[in-house]
User: What shape does this take?
Amino acid sequence: MSLPRPSRIGLIVALVATLVLLCCGGSVSAILLGGLGNEDNSNAFSTLGCGQGGPIDPDGELPRVAEYGVEQIRNAAIIINVGSDLKLPPRAWVIAVATAMQESRLTNLGFLGERNDHDSLGLFQQRPSTGWGTPAQVQDPVYASRKFYEKLQTVKGWERMSLTRAAQRVQRSAYPNAYAKHESLAAQIVNLLTNGAANAVGDSLAMVCAAGGKIAAGGWTIPLKSVVGSGFRTRSRPTHQGVDLIVGKYTPIAAVASGVVSVMKCDEDRRGRRSCNVDGYPGKGGCGWMVEIVHAGNEMTRYCHLIQRPSVDVGDEVAAGQPIGRVGSSGNSSGPHLHFEVHLNNDRTSRGAVDPVDFMQSKGAPLGGEG
Assistant: This one.
């Protein structure tokens, strides 16, 4: 298992900090490295590999990432190293880091007096009274990480579960849905510390990039294999808020990440008609049969022009790679394709739309090609 040298991390940090200072006039102490934050669609780390180098030195040069200081990132490095030592795939590292983000903000917590949740201690708020270990043991980051991973390995099918379900099966938290909001930043922290391991195939020990429909360790995959046709906000189509993936009718469409279906409908055309069970035409207006899914961090994806009623309903929980419908040409369409959009902050308007090609590349699930 290979991870990057601290000197490489320092170089990346210095380069990104310099770019932020030159472009934005910001403060180094306040930067979000590589756009590490859900409101930023920066693709600064998309050029990283899929996990190469050597073990992370927790005492080496480490960065501040978003609201997490050097000591907290050091704890993330320890969590990743333990997962690597246990020969667990990078999906496990992302789950573990996100869990510790929720439980302790990546801080090795001691006894908090009246603020303590029972006798919970350490990075994962493990309870000695329920068999996790002695108070001294669960406050040892290496021990605590190992215990988390050992419990995760007992959860059947954890590799294919959404992050929040897998974490909850280990933690049994009173807030079972709280882990999901940390997934995006946890994946980016793992990528930063491991030269892109969250972009590798999530359930594989081989650090191979998750192209061709494989699910990346960060929890993302492509909706289908296809070339990219019309692009995002091109000169000829400045109001085109997504990309067109050109492929034949009835091709299955997959959810690109776990989430909850927020919209499923036949989108009205310009005349207010809901005629989605027939092919559309240019100028008709409307998205035809469509689905929207809200993912961790309020990142929303939209799928348009399906050939028939989608196979999911509003409120359904979906997993990455789960079929949600089939390609068609309903609505404002000149031929069979999937119109695919990405929106930040769950903003359904054009203000929230970002380039899906850049976004999916940053998630380790690049669009385009037949690969």
The helical segments are 6-24, 70-85, 90-104, 135-138, 141-153, 163-171, 183-194, 356-362.
